[in-house]
Amino acid sequence: MERVQSLAAMTIGRVLSGRSLDVELLTLWRKEEGLTIQERGAIQDITFGVLRHLGYVDAILSQLLQKPLTDSLVRNILQVAIYQLQHANNKTYTIVDHAVTASIRLGFPQARGLVNGVLRNFIRRQKELEKKAQNSIEGQYSYPIWWINHLIKQYPEQYKTILEAGNHKPPLTLRVNQQKISRDQYLLQLSELSIESKPIGKSGIWVIKPCPVNQLPGFKEGLVSVQDAGAQLAAEFLGATDGMRVLDACAAPGGKTAHILELAHVEMMAVDIDPNRLLRVKENIERLGLKAQIIERDAGDPNLWLDEALFDRILLDVPCTASGVVRRHPDIKWLRQSRDIATMAKRQMTILNTLWPLLKQGGQLLYVTCSVFAEENNQQIEQFMKQHLDVKIIPLGKLDDPYVLQGNQLIPSPMHDGFYYAILQKI
Predict the structure, then answer these.
(1) Do 117 and 28 belong to one domain?
(2) Is the dihedral of CA 347, 348, 354, 355 positive or negative?
(3) Between 423 and which of 50, 245, 311, 394 could a Cys-Cys bridge form, CB atoms 3.0 to 4.6 Å apart?
(4) What integer pLDDT is reported at residue 93 of this predicted model?
(5) Cα–Cα distance list, 14 to 17, 26, 128, 334, 350 (Å)
(6) pLDDT digits (tens, 9 = 90+) for 149-183
(7) How would you class 36 by CB atoms within 10 Å of its CB: exposed for 0-12, middle for 13-18, buried for 19 or more?
(8) pLDDT, tens only, 96-141
(9) With the CA atoms of 67, 73, 79 and 80 taken in that order, what torsion angle do they form, in degrees rounded to the nearest 10?
(10) DSSP three-state, residue 274
(11) Residues 365 and 410 in one domain
C-alpha cells in the first residue's frame, strides 16, 4: 500500500505540473513492470479519484495546514491520503502509517511528523472539515473557479448538473457491431455469463457493473467496442449510406470511424495528424474486421487536400477543450486554462473552413466537439454560417431517453458525456 501511495502521489504531482494523466500512467506501467494488476488498479483509482475531487480535497487540506507547504510532493502525499481516508476500505491507521512511510520513501523524512499530525487531525475533525469545505464553490464542485463561472454564465439553469456529472465515474457502455451480431443476441450472451446489462440508444449496451473488456464475450473477435453512449450518436447523425465516399477528418482513436463502417458499406478515408493515435485507429478497424484508408495528415492544411476528390459525408470531430468528457479525463479540469478556449476555437474554424470545399453539393458535414463551451460550439456554427452562403443546418431531431439535448448541445448526464453536434448541408 505504501508503494501504491508513493507512486500515486508522484503521478498526481506530474499531472499538476502540466502533464497528461493517461501519458503518465502509461509511462509508469512501463517503468514499474513489477506492479501487480491489483496495484495498477489501485494507483489508477487513486489518481483518477484525487483529480476528480481535487477542489474538495484541497479545501479540506487548507484548513489543516497553518502555512503553505514548501514541498509540493508532500502535499500530493496528503491529497492521496485524505482521498483514501474518505473513500477506501482500508483501516484509517494503515493509511496514515503508509503515508508517513511514503514521505520518507520519497525523500522527505523531515515531513513525517507533519504528515502524521495533519492526517490524524483530519480523522478527528472529519465531519466538521468536510462541511466547511463545501462552503467554497471550488470545494463544492471541484473545478477551477474560471470554469465554474463560465458554465454559470452559459448554463444558468444546468451548470450544477454539468459540473456534478463530470465528477462521477463513467458508466461502461458498449457499441454492438451489428455486422456480426444483433444487439439482442449479444445481450443474451451477457445474460448467460451473469453480466447484468441494458440496451441504450440504437446500438448501445450499458454494462451495469463494469468489468475488464477481456471478460466481455467476443470482444477480441470484434463483436463489441467500448464507446460512450453520447459518442455513438455521431455515426447516426452523419447518416452515411452504402456507396458513399466518407471522410473522418480527425479520426483517432477510431471509434466513430468504425461505427460508420458498421452501419454502411462506404468508401472511408480516416485522417489524423498524430501517427501514434492513428495506430489505435488501425487496431480498432482490424479487430472489428472493417476496412478504411488510414492517412496521416493535418486536416487544417489546405495544401494537403488540393487533389482530393469530393466527399458525400464528412465527420469533423475537431480538437477541443474536452470539457464535456472530464469524468473520463479528470486531469483536463486542472490542465486547461481559460485562454485555451479561444485557441481551440481558432483551430476549429481553420479546419472547418479547409474541409468545407471538399464536400459535394447536397452533401453533409457533421461538426462535433466533446466540449460544453459555447465558443467551440454554437458560436462557431453561427460565425461559419455568416461567412458561407452555401450552408444550412439540418435539425438533429428529438432523442429518446437517456439523452439530454439542449439545442445542439448534449448535456452531460449520468449515462453519457457532453457532446455538441451540428449537421451542415451544402446547398
Answers:
(1) yes
(2) positive
(3) 394
(4) 86
(5) 5, 13, 31, 12, 32
(6) 999 999 999 999 999 999 999 999 999 999 999 99
(7) exposed
(8) 999 999 999 889 999 999 999 999 999 999 999 999 999 999 999 9
(9) -150
(10) coil
(11) yes
Amino acid at 399: L
211: annotated active-site residue:
no
Rounded Cα distance between 260 and 246, Å, is 9
Is 406 strand, coil or helix?
strand
Domain that holds residue 243: 233-426
Q: Which helix (H) or strand (E) holds 426?
A: strand 419-426
Rg (CA), the chain: 23
For residues 29 and 177, membership in a common domain is answered with no
Query: Which pLDDT does position 400 carry in this prediction?
Result: 87
Q: What whole-number distance in Å separates Cα of residue 282 and Cα of residue 403?
A: 30
3-state DSSP assignment of residue 249: coil
Q: Residue 224's closest CA among 193, 159, 180, 290?
A: 180
CA 102 to chain centre: 30
**Number of domains observed in the structure of the chain:** 3
Q: Which amino acid is at 166?
A: G
Neighbours of 263 (CB within 10 A): 19
Mean pLDDT computed over every residue of the chain: 95
For 178-222, the DSSP string reads TTT--HHHHHHHHHHTT--EEEETTTEEEESS---GGGSTTTTTT
Q: Which of 142, 158, 186 is the last residue of a domain?
A: 142
∠ CA 87-92-98, rounded to 5°: 100
Give the number of other CB atoms < 10 A from CB of residue 11. Answer: 24
DSSP 230: T
Nearest to 57 by CA among 115, 131, 168, 142: 142
Q: What digits encode the pLDDT tens for the residues 7-45? A: 999 999 999 999 999 999 999 999 998 999 999 999 999
Q: Say which residue the cell 449479444 belongs to.
A: 186
pTM for the model stands at 0.94
